[in-house]
Design brief:
By secondary structure, this protein is α+β, with helices and mostly antiparallel strands. Helices cover 34% and strands 18% of the residues. The chain contains five helices and two strands, in the order αβαβααα. It has a two-stranded antiparallel sheet. α4 crosses α5.
Length: 113
Amino acid sequence: DTDVLILGDLLELQTLDMQGHSCAAVPYCLQRMEDYINFDVLASLGFREVYDRKACIVNRGLLVIDVAKWNAKGMTEDIEAWMGRYASSEKDLWVGGMSQPPWLLAMNGDFLP
């Protein structure tokens, strides 16, 4: 993002212990999953108990990604699968854009805060 100012040493981010997560991000609790996701449609697709509708979203403006772990977990493929589900759904699976919601669904809280 153009609104990020780095005042420290980026080496700290490179050497960050990701504790098995593919990404580290900042939780943003002024918005919740339910603000983006239609949980009725999600349930009709068989994802009734998989997601916490009250979970904070993640601010994607600042991320640290472990690319090897990201690839190993198939995160890009999961995001693309959610986009495919959206395209084939008879009802809108989410609101609020086309990039944030599938990313949130793929991550499902699996990030280092």
